Amino acid sequence: MSEEIRTSIHGQWSSRTAFILAATGSAVGLGNIWKFPYITGENGGGAFVVIYLLCIVTIGLPIMVAEVMLGRRGRQSPVNTMAALAAEEGRPAIWFLLGWLGVIAGFLILSYYSVIAGWALSYVFRTASGVFEGATADGVSSIFTEFVSNPESLLAWHTIFMVATTIIVSRGVKHGIEKAVSYLMPALFVLLIILLFYSMSTGYFLDGLNFLFAPDFNKLTANSILVAMGHAFFTLSLGMGAIMVYGSYLPKETSIAKASMMIAVADTLVALLAGMVIFPIVFANSLEPGAGPGLIFQTLPIAFGQMEAGVLIGTLFFLLLVFAAWSSAISLIEPAVAWLVENKGVTRVTASVWCGMTTWVVGIGSVLSFNLWSDKTWSLSLFGETLFENKTFFSTLDGLTANIMLPMGGLFIAIFAGWLMKVESSKKELNTTEKGYNLWLFLIRVVAPIAVMVVFLNVTGVIK
Known about the structure:
This protein is mainly α and 464 residues long. The chain has helices spanning 16-27, 30-42, 46-74, 78-88, 96-128, 137-148, 151-170, 173-200, 205-213, 222-235, 242-247, 256-284, 294-306, 310-344, 348-369, 393-420, 423-430, 434-459, and strands at residues 378-382, 385-391. Helices cover 75% and strands 3% of the residues. Strands 1-2 form a two-stranded antiparallel ribbon. The protein is globular and about 65 Å long.
């Protein structure tokens, strides 16, 4: 590969901090705010956290380092990066399909992610207007049911969110993505800290900490370990092209290993802080902590409606959700935009509009899944096992991307970076100590592929 290709035509991050903020924004999403605290409480609290952190270190982090490394070495969209690196390493050209796997996965995820982000955006305004003040559990449930049953309303919020995302991405790496995350991520942390101080004042803060962190090894099962492995992988936005394309904008002098570690720490910190915010509020209002996704839109609004300053706290909380979703959405659309600019000779604005409109159209299927198409279902089998049975359009896309496409992407990234890329190539790109490199090589060649395969075979039902 010629040295000219080493500089991305899309520009690069102005600093390591900019990359860390952008990649952390990609990793931090709706799942951090509700899923991590929820699965932690259900799987042994502190015992689960220890397992999860081990999985981050041994699986998530090595694959993230590999994906960033491939992106920076290729300096192009994931598709063109994999094509160029396969040629450079003397490997079959078919490896460009790994790039497409990530681009398509990110595109499909954004199509339904935008719909749920639209819910959060709607709830910012609903909460700020005081609609939940004094509302009963039945009242809050009725508001939510009425909302999702209205396709026009869901479509409007989906549209607003996608338009905002498209505008940011159309402005480019430095003036669009970097500028947005430089405000969004600090704002997200500030909102979390404000809400954390409020949670400390509820009188139930220690109960929340106990629910999250007190180790209960009786709840820690073999499935808990699989859940920890799976979440460690998915929470870092691996296998969807986002981290690879962000890596392509990374300055040459930046340490990939150090930057990746900081991203993993920040992502985990947000998840832990979210749990420390949510559960004291839940316990203070005698609500059900194991409500899963319903905790956000059907349970917490009851608490916001009953508490002092509930309008302000609730509005800040849903604003936090929107910021988390927005920073992730930007990264999900970027790989497809980068490919169009590189391969079709269009401007970044045109590429962003095309990608945004196409994503919006596919998202209509998820909008209708909650109302007009709620009775239209799909089923899918693999290896003789039924993966999805009677799933809506929304649930099918969610299962297809999370359970199949992302694990496959992560597995192939590990195989290419660990086994097919020349040692001198990866060593030069990572530029770390001999001990550090050998440890990464062992994890990416042995530990990470086996772990991802176990997760993949478990979620597809091949092993149980």
